[in-house]
Amino acid sequence: MIPICLITGFLGTGKTTLLKRIVEENRDRKWIYLVNEFSALDVDGAIVSEENPDVVSIPGGSIFCKCLVTEFIGQMTKIHEQHPDAEGVVIEASGMADPRVIADMLKETKLDAHFELNNIVSIVEPRSFLRLIHTLPNIIHQVEAADLVLLNKCDLFEEAQLVETEQAVGNIKPGSHLRRCEHAAIDFPVFEQTASHNDLHGEYAKCRDPRYSAFALDLPSSTDPRIFMDLINENEDAVYRVKGYVPTEDKPVYFDYSKAGFSITAAMPRSSYGLAWICKGEETERIERLAKEALEM
């Protein structure tokens, strides 16, 4: 049986950072990495594949929605057939995923004859978690399903906010195994099985969830990333996440926005540039229009 570790967490909590650390620290292991990107622009898969060639990307929605479940099953079947010596599969689910469905999915497709769900890790950070648990139920489901909850980005928040988040997690799942960390730097047994997942049940997500939507913005020429920062700050409630590569006058940068704030870091030149945007469903068309207008100014 090939063990599975499923990493979940809302947009910008640090899933890809954690996955990169796992890759870097286990280069000698025969592990396969599957990265699910809600946006059609595959940013996270490209980042992780720089560290390890054994990366499978599934962009364009949640692997637990009706639209992508067939592709997910197909990719898992390929892993079993093409990598019979694989020692484990680490899956980074999209930030919108409800992980409760994975156990039933493995059983229904008979993939449980080859794969065993050992560990579910959920990553949270105070700002997005405390603001959105009342409006986005999948954030709650991610904690309910978790064997381990990581409270990340602790260096960015006051102790009172951290305690409030820990209490909220405890209210959702009493007795949950929760650990604090910064920059997703934490050691834990990736494939350790601490509990059975037989009682984990959920429903496949709809192909189009009205609560959020995504678009990709191509950036063919030099762009000042500050125009996007201004746009996001003016429409903070409508924008959940923006990430990707921007070609500036000096050099390319990696642009990252989540509810925890902005990050702009130097990046290597690429063949193409663009940003993946995830917004509140009813606001997506307006934000996309504003982003395109900002580029033309």
UniProtKB/TrEMBL annotation:
Entry protein name: Zinc-binding GTPase YeiR
Organism: Pontiella desulfatans
Gene Ontology, cellular component aspect: cytoplasm
Domain CobW/HypB/UreG nucleotide-binding: 3-174
Pfam families: cobW
InterPro entries: CobW/HypB/UreG_nucleotide-bd, P-loop_NTPase, Zinc-reg_GTPase_activator
Gene3D superfamilies: P-loop containing nucleotide triphosphate hydrolases
